[in-house]
Structures are given as structure tokens and as C-alpha cells.
Amino acid sequence: MQLVRQNDQYGRRWKRRKNQARLTVAALTAAAIASGCAFGGEDGVQPAPGRQRLDAPPARALDSYAQKLRVAQVARAATAKRWGLTKTPLAAPAAPAKKPRITTRKGFEVKGQAGLPPVFTTIPTKKKIVFLTIDDGAEKDPALLKMMSELKIPYTAFLSDYLVKEDYGYFKKMQSRGVALNNHTLNHRYMPGLSYAGQRREICGMQDTIQKRYGKRPELFRPPYGNYNKDTLRAAKSCGIKAVPLWASEAFADRMEWREWDKDLHPGDIILTHFRGREHWKGTMPDMIRKVMKTVTGKGYAVARLEDYL
Description:
Elements: H1 2-34, H2 59-82, E1 119-120, E2 129-136, H3 142-151, E3 156-159, H4 161-164, H5 168-176, E4 180-183, H6 196-214, H7 230-238, E5 244-245, E6 249-251, E7 256-258, E8 270-274, H8 285-298, E9 302-304
Parallel strand pairs: 1-5, 2-3, 2-8, 2-9, 3-4, 6-8
Antiparallel strand pairs: 6-7
């Protein structure tokens, strides 16, 4: 009987070792699959029929990618410091696969608004992003082009021909850097003071000018001073305008001004500023960008590209 018990114990030990060996093999197989070594790894072995190839990168590739990200972040931080920013601008999330539905802001409607381009100050989104827009074209500072390109901050321009025509080439350089050039009328007139025909000349005329000079007819229009009436929107629509973005806040070289009662940023807010220099306000265009980014980054927001959401 004693011998039988010893054999039973031996048999149980043998089974445990066998099971442990199976578990070890299974673990090694799983590790090989996870590291991309199984079913078509670097040795060129192809998966068996009916098995899907796994393309997980080897560990050294992940390490290399992480290293590139670290280098890029260090470089971006150095660029921000060189331009006088105390914090590195936050990167905007990827553009949405499906663009949000844009409607006219409550209280900004005109009689018969249905069927006319929507007027809005904010893009509907829950993401902590804002949009930077610059109006008219009076100041043509090369430092602005360099600064925005190096910092990779997106923005949208709304141009008036009576100012832009002094140097069409400056805005061509801006366009070559990925900036969309949109309509702010030919002569920056107070639109409600004009007849329908007069408003249409201002808007359609600028459409023609932008198409001739820059090769693309805009779909966005911003009325001078933010003033408009039903004829403005009717005329804009007839000229090919699809949307009328206004703004939720305005940036200057030395301050921010707010439309909302809480004087704060909100997800999707549109920020307005102008092409201005020292003769117009207390600073340069780069000074204005520093002020904007101090506010935006300090509140945890990134600047996104407006056209990606319209």
C-alpha cells in the first residue's frame, strides 16, 4: 500500500509538471504573437492558411517612435521659447471624420433666416479647442508668417481688397503655408447701410478678386464690424458663401475682450484679431500672438483649423 501511495504522489507530481510545461509554452507563444514574432515576423514566415498576420511593430520600432516624439516635443518647446512663449502650444486633436452641424446662434437670426448662411460665434464641439481668425490685411508683417509656421499654429484670414492690394504677394505666401483666405468685402463698408445691389458688389467683387489672385473662391464671409442684415446674407449666398463666422472673443497685443458674460474661453470659440502693428495698437503681430497663446494655452486649449470643422 505504501508503494501505491508513492506512485500516486509521483503521478500527481508528473501531471503538475506537464501542465506547467504546457502553460509555459502557451505563455511563450502569446508573447511571441504580441511582439510580432509569430505569423509573419521579421524572419518572413507566413501565417498558416486561415490565420491572420499580426503586424505589431517590434519593441525597438516602438522605442524609436517614442524617441522621435520626444525629440519633436523638445524642438517645439525650444521654438516656443525662442518666440517668447512661456508654455508650448498644445497640439490640436485630429479633424473630425464627421463635421458638426452648424446653425445660426440664437439671437443672431434675421427674418427669413432659413435657407441663408448660418451666423455663429462658436463651433459645436466638446473638445478643448478654439479657432484663430485674423481680419482685413492692414499689417503685412513677415515675422507673423515665420512665427505661425514655426509654431505650427493654424489660423484663418478674412481679407478686404482695399488693404490686401498693397501687397497681394504677402497673402500668397500665407496661403502657401496652408492658411485659408476668405471674404471680408472689397472696401470694408458698413453693410446694412448699403442696398442689396451694393452689398452684392462688395461681397461678389471680393469673391472674384480672391479667385483671380489666389485661385479659389471662398465659402466663408465675415461682414465688416460684424454688422449685417437679411440683404447681407442673401447677397452672400448668391455669391457662393456657405457660412458667416463671427467671434466669441477678440485679441489685441495687450489684452483680450470677450463677448460672453463670464469673460472666458469655451470649447469651439472663434477668436477674432486684426492685421495690425505698433502704429495701430500697443505692440506687433507677434506680441498679439503671444497674448493669445498665453490665454489659450494657459486655459488648457489648443488652436485648431476652422475649415476642418466647417
